[in-house]
Amino acid sequence: MTSIISIKNLRKAYPGGFEALKGVNLEIEQGEILALLGPNGAGKTTLISTVCGITVPTGGSITVGGFDTITQYRATRDLIGLVPQEINLEPFETVFNSVSFSRGLFGKPRNDAYINRILDQLSLGDKKNSKIMALSGGMKRRVLIAKALAHEPRVLFLDEPTAGVDVELRKDMWEIVAGLKADGVTIILTTHYIEEAEAIADRVGVINGGEILLVQDKSELMAQMGQKQLQIAISDPVAEIPAALSAYALERSDDGLRLTYTYETTGERTGITTLLNDLAAAGLVMTDLQTKQSSLEDIFVGLVKEKS
């Protein structure tokens, strides 16, 4: 795949010595959806702001579509659409005029048909003559996306796009993002919602303390770092795990009626067959078995803890 954004050794320090970005290296592929995960203060928004030219880096370089964000700012900014966290819209303007105005800011010729198509894609067509102040929070988020797409960018940054949006609207936004990808738009989103990354991202990046901890294909990440748990329900409670089963590092529930066995999904052998035989030999009678796959959230929390 061809990289549309190339970030090399990017640094951002503020007066007083605080480093928001510490030598970030990142290649973003054309046409992908990259989810950037990290706790508050991790550097997500600073990274986006720097790529978009809102924040000036202390060191390193960024190219977008082959153009340098410092020396060729206008060319790079034309390629980028940004949807910020904050909803900052002119309340007395209509939806159509607000989006059209954004297109004009980039020097693009008037194109009502294109604006109408964007509004229809975002389920705003029937609201185009409504004033912003009359819209719900979810609709205002959609207007922000429409404004970011008005100048036909090739890259779209979504900074916490579903913050404060209910579950139903959040899933609508996921469908919108999938549609934009189908149109060839590269999408980078920051999110606190782990399920958002699991649902729509091609790759997942984890940032903490101004450093990229990991960037990997989502499915590979789950396969390589994920674990599964086998939960075993037994007929009679045990006060402690039998010594014959000590090699399995089983966890006992508080009531003694459930044992949990954790194993790697990438191992050649899970050890489950041997475990079940040894359970029977130890006189334990199973009544139920359940498996649970580690989620992206479990992996994310583990990574952040390792680096903190």
How would you explain this protein's 3D organization?
The chain has two domains: 3-223, Rossmann fold (3-Layer(aba) Sandwich), CATH 3.40.50; 226-298, Alpha-L RNA-binding motif (Alpha-Beta Plaits, 2-Layer Sandwich), CATH 3.30.70.1560. By secondary structure, it is α/β, with parallel strands linked by helices. The longest helix has 16 residues, at 167-182. A six-stranded mixed sheet has the order 6-7-8-3-9-10, with helices on both faces. A four-stranded antiparallel sheet has the order 2-1-4-5, with helices on one face. 33% of the residues lie in helices and 29% in strands.
* Largest sheet, strands/sense/barrel: 6 strands, mixed
Mean pLDDT: 89
Which band does the percent of strand residues land in? Answer: 25-35%
The N- and C-terminal alpha carbons lie at a distance of 33 Å
Helix content: 25-40%
GO molecular function: ATP binding; ATP hydrolysis activity
Keywords: ATP-binding, Nucleotide-binding, Transport
Protein name: ABC-2 type transport system ATP-binding protein
Domain ABC transporter: 5-234
Structure keywords:
308 residues, alpha/beta, Rossmann fold, Alpha-Beta Plaits, 2 domains, 6-stranded mixed beta sheet, 4-stranded antiparallel beta sheet, 10 helices, 33% helix, elongated
Q: Could you give the topology of this structure?
A:
Elements: E1 3-13, E2 19-29, E3 33-37, H1 44-51, E4 59-64, E5 67-68, H2 73-79, E6 80-83, H3 95-105, H4 112-121, H5 137-149, E7 155-159, H6 167-182, E8 186-191, H7 194-200, E9 203-208, E10 211-217, H8 218-225, E11 227-234, E12 251-252, E13 258-264, H9 272-281, E14 286-293, H10 296-307
Helix pairs in contact: 3-5
Domain ABC transporter: 5-234
Organism: Yoonia tamlensis
GO molecular function: ATP binding; ATP hydrolysis activity
